[in-house]
Design brief:
Number of helices: 6
Number of strands: 2
Shape: elongated
Low-confidence stretches: none
Structural class: mainly alpha
Radius of gyration: 17 Å
Largest sheet: 2 strands, antiparallel
Mean pLDDT: 90
Helix content: 40-55%
Strand order of the largest sheet: 1-2
Length: 128
């Protein structure tokens, strides 16, 4: 199983904002340089996080991005869903046959993974 690089950048951005500057806006340029990624590419990722209410966009000369007020409750799964969407990782080749035992196993494993990611918060990492 593999998540996109966008998810990697989103997770690291959220952790950086939580650890370093929970209330102070950080510009996209600084966030991009920290992760060695294009500011244009990172802006697209940040737009998704803003749309989901995880971060706020602050305009102006001293603008940038800040965490939302409820950032302590944001889970890894929330961030992954914001970037990757909520569709299943497994696509059964039997056209969703309800009797497919392979699909049953895969969806059960996916549910276990999602539960683990739902229980892990970015704020837990800040405390370490």
């Amino acid at each position: 199983m593999k998540y996109s690089k966008a998810t990697n950048y989103a997770l690291h951005t959220m952790l950086f904002l939580a650890k370093e500057t929970p209330d102070k806006p950080v510009g996209v340029q600084q966030l991009a340089e920290m992760q060695h990624v294009s500011p244009t590419y990172l802006s697209k990722i940040l737009t998704k996080l803003v749309k989901e209410g995880m971060i706020n966009s602050v305009s102006g000369a001293n603008g940038g991005y800040t965490l939302s007020q409820n950032w302590e409750d944001i889970s890894f799964l929330d961030i992954i869903h914001a970037i990757e969407g909520k569709s299943s990782l497994f696509d059964c080749c039997l056209y969703n046959d309800p009797k497919c035992v392979i699909k049953e196993v895969m969806l059960s494993a996916e549910e276990t993974l999602e539960n683990e990611l739902k229980n892990r918060k970015i704020s837990d990492l800040v405390k370490k």
